[in-house]
Design brief:
This protein is α+β, with helices and mostly antiparallel strands. 42% of the residues lie in helices and 19% in strands. The protein has 7 domains: 15-100 and 135-163, no CATH class; 187-239, no CATH class; 244-366, Calcium-transporting ATPase, cytoplasmic transduction domain A, CATH 2.70.150.10; 374-446 and 878-975 and 1008-1104, Calcium-transporting ATPase, transmembrane domain; 458-473 and 691-857, HAD superfamily/HAD-like (Rossmann fold), CATH 3.40.50.1000; 505-563 and 583-630 and 647-687, Calcium-transporting ATPase, cytoplasmic domain N (3-Layer(aba) Sandwich); 1117-1152, no CATH class. It is globular and about 120 Å long. The chain crosses the membrane at residues 33-54, 205-226, 379-398, 418-438, 879-903, 909-928, 949-971, 1016-1033, 1045-1061, 1067-1087.
Length: 1175
């Protein structure tokens, strides 16, 4: 145990959700609890609130350090960048046996059938075996729906799947009372409560009532939304979560049980008509057709086969990720099963409850990762600055009041009132309004958002990764042609595969059988590529019924045959020959694996004694599994010809199996034994057309200085061709393929750099290059050349043959060099990357889109620029609203401070009018400006704490201060000025009755509210609110201009008719002049500061414009030039890593590597070195 009693816990099977966490042990301390109780009483409960908001203080303030073994309370802290604190209570449970962790050895008693161990040992047998032992106390705690148990041997809390509990994903809907308490204890509402009490003490009942009314509405709306989300999630999870299942435990007969009673090791029977899986289970007998759209977003049903019991794969330990093609996941729908005579479809339960894949998905919603965005961090710092300003006013008020001998009660109330004025109470609501409006606008264009805070992040996207198939290109494939092998070489391409002459060929037989198609309600269903390939043959697929299967020997569950009219005449004349040669039964299927990039089947032609194996997959993979003499010498050149033109190429292979192989033996063979020594059959050439919108969208993103990448599982040259066709790689730019191989036979790992075109020698064009990296090369470079990874991804545009986890890894690498990454995809392979990116955009509307923050109802990438436009508009709106709310507080603070100097203040209705009629209307209407129609190459700023933005705010504060002081001093210099009394009449005789009624008041105005200074400052400050709202409402190039938002101008009409006491007509004209000059000065200052912010950002992006020989950079205005010099932007190093790295590589003469060079991994002493050798 470490010296500071600190340990690290980590979820081994929940690695997708839970991060490594540090943990400290504590036990209650009586004297600390007494002190805290006394402090809570003395502070009126504020100390308890502080300890509630800061759990680490709460634990340390009431407990003392102790060992984890003796702890009763635990303090947890995540080790990620957020460093979140959590408090957990340690519970005790009784377990049978002295050392339960040693006794319950699941590895020996419930081994999964890779070793075909006893998978039927039940929890009841365990209980009986150890029933004679005395129960032992087990300490555990629960965190984020996961239980951690204390292990005496490792002296740490660990995850044990021994104590399973009920198989239930319990989403408990909190009561309204609990939600209300949690919401009300928010620091914002506590501050509101403090403010209301203070205003009530000042007799500001109307204003206090209005704030209470708004707070109640806000709380009610928030509670309704939260409750509704909990109920929706509960209903989604509860649907089909508790079902009755057939279970086989031990050597007992099959029994009925509730799904909540399932534990790992149980064997469940999958019914013929399918079911919704209540747990994660691995198939040990039979085959299932499964719809996994709830988890993956892929609507195409997939085939799950039984776990191999023999061969190399069976010898390996079961791993959820490696063996997912044999695993039925919780929440997925088993549509139908494939079974054989006397055999039931069985699966062994491996995970239950929140440990399942569906449990991971639910927890990712219940406990989302915090949104890390610089704007929000800066907002808190800015509020702290406002608190500092409030502190100055607090001290000023106390000193001034003491000098004027003000009563102590008044001093306390007025000094505290300054704090409530300086910190804007409506800030959170105003900031949220802009995001809500953006969310509504996105919904109107078919983009749905489940994480609204990420909308602002979309405004900072500077790189977007795209999947290829179904995203950049059409989802469906068209068969362009086939190219068969004849006499060891390629025959000429053929456009049709359904010709009579090819019916009996192995090539067409492979096309007709090597797929995972199935019939669901009479319709063929499966992968689009398989559907297109099978339909091209014209053959018919027939699946036997349950009765037919029971009557026949276990020979073939599925049969394919050509239509009668397609059978050659010679065969038609003899029915026996027809049946013997044409009907093919699929005996066993090895489903497609994205890791292996292939699939295969074992078939038997009716009437033949031997079986055949057919294989299809990526050409490079298939060629390596074939006998070399069967692969044409022109294979590489032919493949390259097609892939350069953007075709998708699939290779086919065949092998005749030994006649001694029986049906039962085939069922137990591993695919490695089948998929070897194949004979190459030829190529299928599929055409994958680029979507109509793709090129235009990518061009728009490039003009907006947003980098685009292609991340696909397709062939490298096909991907490069598509990248050129859609404009991702332009005609004059070269592509460098980084081909890496791992170490082998005492040879170190190496990277060969292939140039797809001859390098250009023009000094400008020499820098126009893109890297293309395959999934295999990416894995090798990540492991053996880590120092090159960031250099590669900086200029890599095409990533081909990427596995799903590699896509996620790539997103993380891009984020590590400070890119704000977007990911756009449509299928199962993209789910991890969609969740990991700053902004994931799913083109699939299925249930798995819950993994993505954004979902588009349009199936093309036109949603990406729409999302970025709205993100930029929302981000700029957030800046505008924040700056306006800060200025509103400061303007009111200045007015009240000046009035305090004459022992006056604003009145109840004045505060009410300012906050309700002006501020709320402006704050909520200035967010209505929609996004600008075009994407510009500049991005909005991401930080509030920057020189130009701070100067913008400070200059506006100084401007407002100058004009308020000017008006305050000028009114006291007027000839008609006097200390105002109810009998004062500074107006002329023609004053209206309305004005006269406003001058009439009771003789006792103990707050001294009605006076000329108050009227003047109130009038000037009211227009200052409107002026700063207009100048801060930034329009082009990110939002529509302010003049299109007519709702804001309604405030101007209200303000123009307001005054408190009657003043002469000339002074009203003077006030109008002061207001106009104030607005003009504010506007002129903001225009110059507005120009500097984009310039600051353009400095960091200028390099990439130069890289693309785009020298059309707009000239700076003199204000921008001066301010950039003032803030030392000319010589400042880039703040983002990718720009810093780009500038370094610009001066590196050895980068990019020269054509046909090889980089070796030389690692004799543990360090990486690079050597270049000319081939």
């Amino acid at each position: 145990e470490s010296h500071d009693n600190r340990h690290v816990i980590q979820s081994t099977f929940d690695h997708l959700l839970f991060l490594v966490q540090e943990v400290w042990g504590y036990r209650p301390c009586l004297w600390k609890m007494v002190l805290v109780g006394m402090g809570a009483v003395c502070s009126g409960g504020l100390l308890l609130l502080l300890l509630y908001w800061l759990p680490e203080w709460g634990v340390k303030g009431t407990c003392t350090h102790t060992s984890l073994r003796d702890a009763r309370t635990l303090l947890l802290r995540t080790t990620d960048e957020f460093r979140q604190w959590f408090r957990a209570k340690v519970h005790v449970m009784l377990a049978p046996g002295r050392k339960p962790f040693d006794s319950f050895n699941l590895q020996s008693t419930a081994q999964l059938p890779n070793g075909d161990g006893d998978h039927g040992v039940s929890a009841e047998e365990h209980h009986g075996k150890f029933a004679q032992r005395q129960p032992a106390q087990i300490h555990y705690f629960t965190h984020h729906s996961t239980k951690y148990y204390w292990n005496d041997e490792t002296h740490n809390f660990e995850l044990y799947k021994l104590f399973f509990g009920e198989n239930e994903i319990a989403v408990r809907v909190p009561s309204l009372f609990k939600l209300l308490i949690k919401e009300v204890l928010n620091p914002f509402y506590i501050f509101q409560l403090f403010s209301v009490i203070l205003w009530s003490a000042e007799d500001y009942y109307y204003y206090a009532t209005a704030i209470v009314f708004m707070s109640v509405i806000s709380i009610a709306t928030s509670l309704y939304t939260i409750k509704k989300q909990y109920v929706m999630l509960h209903d989604m999870v509860a649907a089909h979560s508790v079902v009755r299942v057939s279970v086989c435990r031990g050597n007992k007969d099959i029994e009925e049980a509730m799904s909540t009673e399932l534990v790992p090791g149980d064997v469940v029977i999958i019914p013929v008509n399918g079911m919704i899986m209540p747990c994660d289970a691995v198939l040990i007998h039979g085959t299932c057709i499964v719809n996994e759209s709830m988890l993956t977003g892929e609507s195409v049903p997939v085939t799950k086969t039984s776990l191999p019991s023999l061969g190399e794969e069976a010898a390996r330990r079961y791993n959820m990720e490696e063996h997912k093609r044999y695993t039925l996941f919780c929440g997925t729908h088993v549509i139908q099963t494939r079974f054989y005579t006397g055999e039931l479809v069985k699966a062994v339960v491996v995970r239950t409850g929140f440990s399942t894949e569906k449990g991971h998905l639910v927890r990712s919603i219940l406990y989302p990762k915090p949104t890390d965005f610089k704007l929000y961090r800066d907002a808190y710092l800015f509020l702290l600055c406002l608190v500092g300003v409030a502190g100055i006013g607090f001290i000023y008020t106390i000193v001034l009041s003491i000098m004027n001998k003000v009563p102590a009660k008044t001093i306390i109330i007025e000094s505290l009132d300054i704090i409530t004025i300086t910190v804007p109470p409506a800030l959170p609501a105003a900031m949220t309004a802009g995001i809500v409006y953006a969310q509504r606008r996105l919904k109107r264009v078919g983009i749905f958002c489940i994480s609204p805070q990420r909308i602002n992040m979309c405004g900072q996207l500077n790189l977007v990764c795209f999947d290829k198939t179904g995203t950049l290109t059409e989802d469906g494939l068209d068969l362009w042609g086939i190219q068969r092998i004849e006499d060891g070489s390629f025959s000429p391409p053929e456009s049709e595969a359904a010709k009579e002459s090819l019916v009996n060929s192995a090539f067409v037989a492979c096309m007709a059988t090597c797929h995972s198609l199935t019939k669901i309600e009479g319709e063929l269903s499966g992968d689009p590529l398989d559907l297109k390939m099978f339909s091209a043959t014209g053959w018919i697929l027939e699946e036997p019924t349950e009765e037919e299967t029971a009557l026949h020997n276990p020979i073939m569950p599925t049969v394919v045959r050509p239509p009668k009219h397609a059978i050659p005449e010679a065969s038609q004349s003899n029915p026996l020959t027809q049946n013997m040669s044409c009907e093919i039964g699929i005996v066993r299927q090895f489903p497609f694996s994205s890791a292996l990039q292939r699939m295969s089947v074992v078939v038997r032609r009716l009437g033949e004694r031997h079986m055949d194996a057919y294989l299809k997959g990526a050409p490079e993979i298939v060629a390596n599994l074939c006998k070399q003499h069967t692969v044409p010498q022109s294979f590489t050149e032919t493949l390259e010809t097609y892939t350069r033109q953007g075709f998708r190429v699939i290779a086919l292979a065949h092998r005749q199996l030994e006649s001694k192989l029986s049906w039962h033996k085939v069922q137990s063979l591993s695919r490695d034994l089948i998929e070897t020594n194949m004979e190459f059959l030829g190529l299928i050439i599929m055409q994958n057309k680029i979507k109509q919108e793709t090129a235009g969208v990518l061009c728009e993103l490039r003009k907006a200085n947003i980098r685009t990448l292609m991340v696909t599982g397709d062939n490298m040259l096909t991907a490069i061709s598509v990248a050129r066709d859609c404009g991702m790689v332009r005609a004059h730019e070269k592509v460098i393929i980084a081909d890496a191989v791992p170490p082998k036979d005492f040879q170190s790992a190496s990277i060969t750099w292939h140039y797809t075109e001859n390098p250009l020698t023009h000094p400008c064009f020499s820098r126009l290059y893109h890297f293309a990296v395959s999934g295999r090369a990416f894995a090798v470079i990540t492991e053996h050349f880590p120092h090159l990874v960031q250099k590669l991804v900086l200029r890599a545009t095409v990533f081909a043959r990427m596995a799903p986890d590699q896509k996620t890894q790539l997103v993380e690498v891009l984020q590590s060099i400070d890119y704000t990454v977007g990911m756009c995809g449509d299928g199962a392979n993209d789910c991890g990357a969609l969740k990991r990116a700053h902004s994931g955009i799913s083109l699939s509307e299925l249930e798995a889109s819950v993994a993505s923050p954004f979902t588009s109802s349009t199936s093309n990438i036109s949603c990406v620029p729409n999302l970025i436009r709205e993100g930029r508009a929302a981000l700029i709106t957030s800046f505008c609203v924040f700056k306006f709310m800060a200025l509103y507080s400061i303007i009111q603070y200045l007015s009240v401070t000046l009035l305090y100097s004459i022992l006056s203040n604003l009145g109840d209705f004045q505060f009410l009018f300012i906050d309700i009629a002006i501020i709320l209307i402006i704050a909520f209407t200035m967010s209505l400006n929609p996004a600008w129609k075009d994407l510009v190459w500049r991005r909005p700023p991401s930080s509030l704490i920057s020189g130009p933005l701070l100067c913008s705010v400070l200059t506006q504060i100084l401007t407002c201060l100058v004009f308020q002081v000017l008006a305050f001093l000028l009114v006291r210099q007027q000839s008609w000025y006097e200390i105002w009394t109810p009998q004062s009449d500074a107006c002329n005789v023609s004053s209206s009755s309305l004005s006269h009624s406003q001058n009439t008041t009771s003789p006792h105005d103990h707050k001294n509210i009605r006076n000329y200074e108050n009227t003047t400052l109130f009038y000037v400050s009211s227009f200052q609110y409107l002026a700063v709202a207009i100048v801060f409402s930034k329009g082009k190039p990110f939002r529509q201009p302010i003049y299109k938002n007519c709702k804001t101008y309604s405030v101007l009409l209200i303000v123009s008719v307001m005054y408190i006491v009657c003043v002469p007509h000339d002074w009203r004209i003077t006030l109008v002049v002061i207001v106009i000059v104030n607005a003009a000065v504010s506007f002129m200052l903001e225009v110059h500061f507005r120009d500097i912010t984009p310039y600051k950002l353009s400095v960091t992006d200028l390099f990439f414009r130069l890289e693309n020989c785009d020298l059309h950079v707009a000239n700076d205005r003199w204000g921008s030039s001066f301010l950039s010099w003032l803030f030392c932007q000319r010589n400042k190093a880039p703040s983002v890593r990718y720009m810093h790295l780009a500038l370094e590589l610009q001066d590196d003469s050895d980068w990019p590597p020269r054509p046909s060079t090889v980089t070796y991994d030389v690692d004799p002493g543990g360090c990486q070195q690079t050597s270049l050798h000319k081939e």
